[in-house]
Amino acid sequence: MRGLFEDNSVWEKTLKEASNSLLPSQMRSLFVNILIHGSTQNCVIDSLSLWEMFKEHMIDKRNCTDAVKLRRIDRALAIIERYLFANGKQMKDYRLPLPSNSLTDDPNKAVDEFFFPTHLNDDDVDETVDTSFEKAKLNPEQENFYKLVLDAVIDPNSKNRLFFLSGDGGTGKTFLLNFLLFNLRRLGNKVLATASTGIASTKFYAGGMTLHSAFRLGINNEPDRIPSIPVQSYFGRRIIESNLIIVDEITMLEKTVLENVDKLCRIMVPKNQHLPFAGKVVIISGDWKQSLPVVKNSRSPEAQVAVCLQSSNLYSMFEKTRLTQNMRLQPSEIQFKEWLYKLGTDTSGDKIAIPKSMIVESREELIEFVFDKGFDIPSSDMLKRLMLTPLNRSVDLNNSIVLSSFNTESMDYYSIDKCTNENPLSPYAADSDVAGLNKLTPAGIPAHHLHLKVGSIIVLLRNLNTSKSLCNGTRLIVKKLQTNLISAETICGSNTGMTIGISRVCNSYVDERPDGVSFERFQFPFVKLLQ
């Protein structure tokens, strides 16, 4: 098994399995994910060899004369290049041939392609443009905010250029941001649409990405660690040329993240370095009653408050708009909404009374209430049901109970773990105590053992392709299980219903404590959940 770390054979087997069931567009996406996420510390993928072996499975072979075949191969390379560019990679990094009219040869085209993507697929993907925002109507609150932002984007000398949009769930924050995104792009403006997390970025109708990815921010956001981005680079040009920057779910970010974005904008546009964010129009959006920043190794509420954006000098510079008109609340939900609002604003008094209708007496009663008694197969209705729990062990127990009712095909997948530091768990092991590594499941790392059934709902732990809503937090339902490939269908985000092939990837964990153990886990990048 350990040999899988050392050669190309696992990827040949993976792509061979995929070629028997996946469409060309799905093969291209899988190929790129293998290139970006498959390499380990001791094994670099032979990308060119894999391309030559499977390139004909990445094109539409219908009505394919020799001349048409060459054009389609060239187009497949162009699509692969676009995916790599979006992840900060280039074809030369993998020794792959360049397509004609390569983005590498034309930086302007690469930046324009990012802001105003052209659809290169000509075979099996429905690339329809969302026109629902053309006929959409705003309520008065939304209309007022839209005009404020539009005026700021059109007039570079406008006084108000920083906006904070807040409101309870259901008041239309995401809809309004998408309305702005659609209409400003239609007017030729370059909008950088970002969010604090990958799953939040999928709420944008098109072109969403994480703030960290857009601004090349590292995991640690110390005030003096500003990323170095060349002005004329692809990432630098994107920042410089943007007319509007959107950051959704801002309340989850530490203040240093936005402060570093501010500093980076000033560096990239030195003529405006005296202005916040170099004079760019910026919208931040969120709800303070929802998730706040996570402070590692701290249980103090004061520690959370200290790192929140409200503690930053930048916060006072933003013009605040709060949406209050709930656009999706049903009459039967009004009482619950009021109770939830009091809970979120700490206006319920010293004691919180939970309505009896929300209380169950046992785990079995809860599962029966959520999923109905007697279900035996996964259904689309189940995708709308979920249970929330703060502990992973509770998730595993609940899932095992529910999944035991599924009479579907199952398969077990075991990871290959390898220590990557010089501090092995056992002094008697040659390079690491593998059995000890198998027992570890740090946050963000998939388990050593995954037991899956067709119909299992899984959650991605990696950002595979945010433009296709494949990111950390994306939920999918398992459709087919193979030895080296899992086919699944997305059930959330802007590409709901899309089928993809998922391979194993290299999941790296670094424990920075002096006696910590760092390791690589070669495993499928998700956790299994029934939610």
UniProtKB/TrEMBL annotation:
It holds the Pfam family PIF1. Keywords: ATP-binding, DNA damage, DNA recombination, DNA repair, Helicase, Hydrolase, Nucleotide-binding. Residues 437-481 form the DNA helicase Pif1-like 2B domain. GO terms for molecular function: 5'-3' DNA helicase activity; ATP binding; hydrolase activity. GO terms for biological process: DNA recombination; DNA repair; telomere maintenance. Its cofactor is Mg(2+). Residues 137-343 form the DNA helicase Pif1-like DEAD-box helicase domain. The keyword Metal-binding does not apply. Its EC number is 5.6.2.3. It catalyses: ATP + H2O = ADP + phosphate + H(+). PANTHER family: ATP-DEPENDENT DNA HELICASE, PTHR10492. Belongs to the helicase family. This is ATP-dependent DNA helicase.
